[in-house]
C-alpha cells in the first residue's frame, strides 16, 4: 500500500512538469538575449576556433539566463554577476582538471556551495547551479594554462556583452516594476468588485507583497525612478481594509436595503478608479477616469445614506480615492472638472470638536507616508549582500536545515554521477551530472517536475535538432545560426514551462556541438540516455535522502498564529490607548509612520502566511501524509481560521480611533489576554497539543458586560467576538484526531 502514494505523487508531478503555462511574451527582450549569444559565438568562430566558440557560448547563454530570473536587481548587474561566477568556476575547474581525485572533491564542494546558495534566494540558487554546469562542460576541452585563461576570459566576455546590450538597447525601462505596482492596484480593484456580491470574499496579498519587493531600489535608481512609481503602493495597502470594512455586514452596512445599494455603488466606483490608475501606471500615461465613477464618490446632495461605522468607512474610501487621483503625476482626464471633496475638509488637522458622525471624518493617519517625507525602500548592493549571504550560510549550516540537506544531496549526487559518467563509454558523460545539478531543487515537487520535464523536453529538442542536422548537414556557421535561433526561442518561452525550455536547450546543445564537428547521431543518442540517467539519479537521491515539507506544517502554522496574534494586539493597542506611540521590541520608538508597529506586524503576518502557503503547497504533492500530525483537511480548516482572524483584524484596522478618542479598557484587557496566551498556544500547536484560549474568552465576556448598557456594541468589541470564534475554530482544527 505504501507504493500507491508514491505512484500518485509521481503521476501528479509528471503532469505538472509537462504542463505549459500561458504567459506574456517579450520578443524584444528575447531577441536582445539571443543577439548577445550571436555576437560572442560569431566573433570567436571568426577569430578563433570551433572549440572556443563552444566555450564562449556557455558564458553568453548562462549570463542571459540569469537576466531572465525573477529578480528586481538591475539586469546588467545580474549578467555581470553570473559572468563573474561562471569565469571563476571555469578557471578553478581547469586548475584541478589534471588531477581526477582533486577535481571530484572540488566538484562536490562546488555543488555543495551551489546548494547552500538556495538559502539566499532562488536567483542565487539558479546562478550558482549554472556555475557547476559550466565547470562540468568547459573542463572537457583540452587546453593549457594560457588556454584556460582564454576560456575564462571568453566566459566573462559573454556576460559583459549581455550586460552591455541591456544598457545600449533598453526595452521598456522600469516595465517590470510598473507591472508589479499595476497588478497590486488591479488586485485591489478586483477585490472591490468581488465584495459587491460576497462581503467575505478572500484576498490574496501576493500582489501587494510583490509590489513591495519591486519598490526596493538603490539610491541611484531612486533618483531616476518615474514619479508614478513613488506613491501608489501605500494607497493600495490602505484601500483594502477600508473596502472590506465597508462591505462587511457585521461592521458595515446591512446586507439588504438602501445602505447596501450605496455600498455596492461605492465599491464599483472605487474599483473603476483603481483600474484606471493601474492601466495608466502600466502604460506610463495619464489617468483616464469616467465621470460617472467620480460622481458616485461624492456625498449625495440629499444627505448621507450610510450611518455609523459604514459611513466612517465610506468617507475614508472617498478620501483615499481622492488621494489616488491626486497622486497621479500625469494629468487626469475627466469630462469636466469634478472635485471629489473640498481639499480643506479632508486635509485639515483633526479638531477635538469634530465627531465621527460628521460628513467628513478627519484622520491624520490617512495621509500617506510618502507624503510625509520622500523616502524609499532601499535595495542593498551586491557587496552589501556578501555579509547577508555569510549569515545565511552560518544559519543554514546545520543538519536539520532543509537547505543544508539539499546541498549535501546535490554534492553527493553530482560527484557520484560524474564518476559514473567517466566510467561509461560515451564521450559526453558529463551530461548526466549536468542534468542532476540543473534538475535538483530543495523540495520534492520541483525536483520531480523538472526531472520529467527535462527528459521529455530533451527528447523533443534533440529529435528536432538531429533531424535538421541529418537533413541539411549545416556548416559551422549554419550550426551556429541554428543554435542562436534555439536559444532565442528559449529566452522567449522561458516562463511557459521547463519542458519547453529543456527542448530548446536540447536543440541548442546539438547545434552547438555540431560546430565542433560532433556527429549528430552520436550526440542525439548520448544526450537522450545520459539525460535520463541524470534525471533518474536526481529523483532517486531525493527518495533515498528526502527533506519532506509535511512535518513542517505545524511549525509554519504556529509561526502564522504568532504573527497574526501580534498584528491583532498592535491594532487593539490603538483602541486601548489612541495616543500610544509605536515602539519596537526594546521599547524604543520606531521611526516614520505613527502606525509603524501595525505596519510591521502586518508584514510579518503576510510573510508567515506566504511561508505557510509555500509549505502547504509542497506538502500536498508529497507521497507522505500526516507526518506532522496534521492531515490535509485539518490544515485547510486551520488555514481558514487564521485567514478569518487576519481579516477581522484588517476590518478593525479600518476603524482606528483618532488621537482624541477615549481609551477603551476592554480592548486593553482583551489585547493583554491575547498577548499572554499566544506563546503557549503556539507551543501547543507545534507539539500536537490542544491550544487553550480560555483567558481570551474570559476577557471578551468582561468586555461585553462593560458595554452592556450601550445601544450598540462598538466596532472593536464586535471584531473581538469574531476573532475569538476564529481562534476556537483553529483549536478544533489542530486538535489531534
TrEMBL record:
Domain Integral membrane bound transporter: 418-540
GO cellular component terms listed in the entry, alphabetical order: plasma membrane
Domain Integral membrane protein YccS N-terminal: 84-193
Topology with respect to the bilayer: Multi-pass membrane protein
Transmembrane annotation, as ranges: 25-46, 77-95, 101-120, 153-171, 451-471, 500-521, 527-545
UniProt key word Cell membrane: yes
Record's subcellular location: Cell membrane
UniProt keywords, alphabetically: Cell membrane, Membrane, Transmembrane, Transmembrane helix
Keyword set includes Membrane: yes
Chief location of this protein within or outside the cell: membrane
Protein name (Swiss-Prot/TrEMBL): FUSC family protein
Species name: Streptomyces bathyalis
Lineage, highest ranks first: Bacteria, Bacillati, Actinomycetota, Actinomycetes, Kitasatosporales
Amino acid at each position: 500500500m505504501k507504493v500507491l502514494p508514491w505512484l500518485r505523487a509521481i503521476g501528479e508531478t509528471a503532469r505538472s512538469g509537462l504542463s505549459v503555462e500561458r504567459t506574456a511574451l517579450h520578443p524584444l527582450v528575447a531577441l536582445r538575449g539571443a543577439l548577445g549569444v550571436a555576437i560572442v559565438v560569431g566573433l570567436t568562430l571568426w577569430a578563433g576556433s570551433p572549440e572556443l566558440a563552444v566555450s564562449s557560448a556557455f558564458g553568453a547563454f548562462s549570463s542571459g539566463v540569469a537576466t531572465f530570473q525573477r529578480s528586481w536587481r538591475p539586469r546588467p548587474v545580474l549578467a555581470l554577476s553570473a559572468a563573474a561566477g561562471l569565469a571563476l568556476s571555469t578557471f578553478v575547474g581547469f586548475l584541478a582538471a589534471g588531477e581526477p581525485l582533486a577535481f571530484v572533491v572540488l566538484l562536490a564542494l562546488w555543488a555543495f556551495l551551489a546548494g547552500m546558495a538556495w538559502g539566499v534566494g532562488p536567483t542565487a540558487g539558479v546562478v550558482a547551479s549554472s556555475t557547476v554546469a559550466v565547470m562540468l562542460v568547459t573542463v572537457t576541452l583540452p587546453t593549457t594554462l594560457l588556454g584556460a585563461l582564454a576560456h575564462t576570459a571568453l566566459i566573462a566576455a559573454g556576460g559583459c556583452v549581455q550586460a552591455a546590450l541591456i544598457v545600449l538597447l533598453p526595452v521598456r525601462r522600469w516595465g517590470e516594476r510598473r507591472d508589479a505596482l499595476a497588478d497590486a492596484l488591479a488586485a485591489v480593484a478586483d477585490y472591490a468588485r468581488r465584495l459587491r456580491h460576497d462581503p467575505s470574499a478572500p484576498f490574496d496579498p501576493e500582489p501587494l507583497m510583490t509590489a513591495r519587493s519591486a519598490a526596493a531600489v538603490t539610491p541611484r535608481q531612486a533618483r531616476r525612478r518615474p514619479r508614478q512609481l513613488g506613491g501608489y503602493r501605500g494607497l493600495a495597502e490602505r484601500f483594502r481594509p477600508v473596502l472590506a470594512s465597508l462591505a462587511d455586514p457585521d461592521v458595515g452596512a446591512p446586507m439588504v436595503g438602501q445602505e447596501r445599494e450605496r455600498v455596492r455603488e461605492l465599491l464599483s466606483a472605487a474599483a473603476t478608479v483603481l483600474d484606471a490608475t493601474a492601466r495608466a501606471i502600466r502604460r506610463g500615461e495619464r489617468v483616464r477616469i469616467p465621470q460617472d465613477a467620480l460622481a458616485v464618490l461624492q456625498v449625495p446632495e440629499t444627505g448621507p445614506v450610510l450611518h455609523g461605522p459604514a459611513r466612517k468607512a465610506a468617507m475614508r474610501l472617498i478620501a483615499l480615492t481622492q488621494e489616488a487621483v491626486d497622486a497621479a503625476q500625469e494629468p487626469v482626464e475627466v469630462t469636466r472638472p469634478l472635485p471629489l471633496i473640498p481639499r480643506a475638509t479632508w486635509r485639515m488637522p483633526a479638531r477635538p470638536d469634530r465627531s465621527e458622525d460628521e460628513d467628513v471624518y478627519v484622520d491624520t493617519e490617512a495621509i500617506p507616508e510618502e507624503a510625509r517625507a520622500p523616502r524609499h525602500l532601499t535595495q542593498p548592493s551586491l557587496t552589501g549582500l556578501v555579509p547577508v549571504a555569510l549569515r545565511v550560510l552560518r544559519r543554514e549550516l546545520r543538519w536539520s536545515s532543509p537547505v543544508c540537506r539539499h546541498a549535501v544531496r546535490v554534492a553527493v549526487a553530482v560527484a557520484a554521477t560524474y564518476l559514473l559518467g567517466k566510467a561509461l563509454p560515451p564521450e559526453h558523460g558529463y551530461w548526466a551530472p549536468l542534468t542532476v545539478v540543473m534538475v535538483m531543487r530543495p523540495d520534492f515537487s520541483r525536483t520531480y517536475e523538472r526531472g520529467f520535464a527535462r527528459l521529455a523536453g530533451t527528447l523533443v529538442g534533440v529529435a528536432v535538432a538531429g533531424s535538421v542536422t541529418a537533413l541539411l548537414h549545416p556548416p559551422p556557421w549554419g550550426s551556429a545560426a541554428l543554435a542562436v535561433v534555439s536559444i532565442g526561442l528559449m529566452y522567449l518561452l522561458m516562463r511557459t514551462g521547463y519542458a519547453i525550455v529543456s527542448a530548446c536547450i536540447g536543440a541548442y546543445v546539438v547545434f552547438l556541438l555540431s560546430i565542433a564537428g560532433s556527429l549528430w547521431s552520436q550526440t542525439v543518442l548520448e544526450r537522450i540516455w545520459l539525460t535520463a540517467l541524470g534525471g533518474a539519479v536526481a529523483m532517486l537521491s531525493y527518495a533515498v535522502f528526502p527533506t519532506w515539507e509535511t512535518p513542517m506544517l505545524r511549525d509554519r502554522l504556529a509561526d502564522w498564529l504568532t504573527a497574526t496574534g501580534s498584528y491583532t494586539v498592535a491594532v487593539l493597542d490603538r483602541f486601548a490607548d489612541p495616543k500610544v506611540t509605536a515602539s519596537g521590541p526594546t521599547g524604543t520608538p520606531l521611526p516614520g509612520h505613527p502606525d509603524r508597529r501595525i505596519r510591521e506586524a502586518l508584514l510579518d503576518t503576510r510573510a508567515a502566511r506566504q511561508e505557510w502557503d509555500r509549505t502547504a503547497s509542497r506538502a500536498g504533492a508529497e507521497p507522505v501524509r500526516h507526518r506532522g500530525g496534521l492531515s490535509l483537511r485539518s490544515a485547510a480548516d486551520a488555514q481558514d481560521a487564521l485567514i478569518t482572524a487576519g481579516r477581522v483584524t484588517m476590518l478593525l484596522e479600518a476603524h482606528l480611533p483618532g488621537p482624541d478618542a477615549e481609551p477603551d479598557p476592554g480592548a486593553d484587557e482583551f489585547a493583554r489576554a491575547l498577548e499572554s496566551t499566544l506563546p503557549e498556544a503556539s507551543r501547543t500547536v507545534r507539539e500536537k497539543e490542544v491550544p487553550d484560549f480560555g483567558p481570551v474568552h474570559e476577557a471578551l465576556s468582561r468586555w461585553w458586560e462593560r458595554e452592556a448598557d450601550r445601544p450598540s456594541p462598538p466596532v472593536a468589541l464586535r471584531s473581538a467576538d469574531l476573532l475569538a470564534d476564529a481562534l476556537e475554530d483553529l483549536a478544533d482544527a489542530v486538535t489531534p484526531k
